[in-house]
């Protein structure tokens, strides 16, 4: 088995295009705190442009990399990050650039989906939002945002009452 396979297994990542090298792990001080940092690379051949929607891979040029840092769930009580060098692409049709998409986190978000799922699990237990935020190394606003998203997904839709209501008397 490869280093990539074991690292993905440890971090619970399913993305097929994400790879890790031999020296992918470091212990670093980030924001005054010792943290585990895993380094990976995400590259593949783009199938469609994020901006104009063209779907011909011949119209895309690999345009360097952008490093993105994601917050992951703790490993051995250490704050854990994943730094990914994501492939950038340039569309020959519209001239705009876009970045390879990953299943680790939502677009424009630096918090991994697994962290959000664990926040949802903690919200079902009797913890305050501030405590959950401290446990997951996020802000209380992020916990509140997850609570609202979780509520929307689990609250059944109400059936609206009809606008008109007619009573008839059949006992005549």
Could you please describe the fold and organization of this structure?
By secondary structure, the chain is an alpha+beta fold. The protein folds into 2 domains: 3-110, no CATH class; 112-154. Helix content is 25%, strand content 30%. It is built from 4 helices and 6 strands; from the N terminus they run αββββββααα. It has helices spanning 3-11, 113-123, 129-136, 140-154, and strands at residues 18-19, 25-30, 33-42, 60-75, 78-91, 97-99.
Total beta strands: 6
Q: What is the oligomer described by this structure? A: single chain
Q: Spans of 5+ residues with little confidence (pLDDT < 50)?
A: none
Q: Indicate the mean pLDDT.
A: 91
Radius of gyration (CA) equals: 23 Å
Anisotropy-based shape: flat
- Return the domain count: 2
In this structure, how is the largest beta sheet organized? 6 strands, mixed
Order of helices and strands: HEEEEEEHHH
- With helices defined by DSSP (H or I, 4 residues minimum), what is the helix count? 4
Distance between the termini: 84 Å
Strand residues, percent? 25-35%
Structural class category: alpha+beta
As a percent range, the share of helical residues equals 25-40%
Summarize this entry quickly:
This protein is of the alpha+beta class.
Summary keywords:
Transposase IS204/IS1001/IS1096/IS1165 zinc-finger domain-containing protein, single chain, 172 residues, 6-stranded mixed beta sheet, flat, alpha+beta, 4 helices, Transpos_ISL3, Transposase_Znf
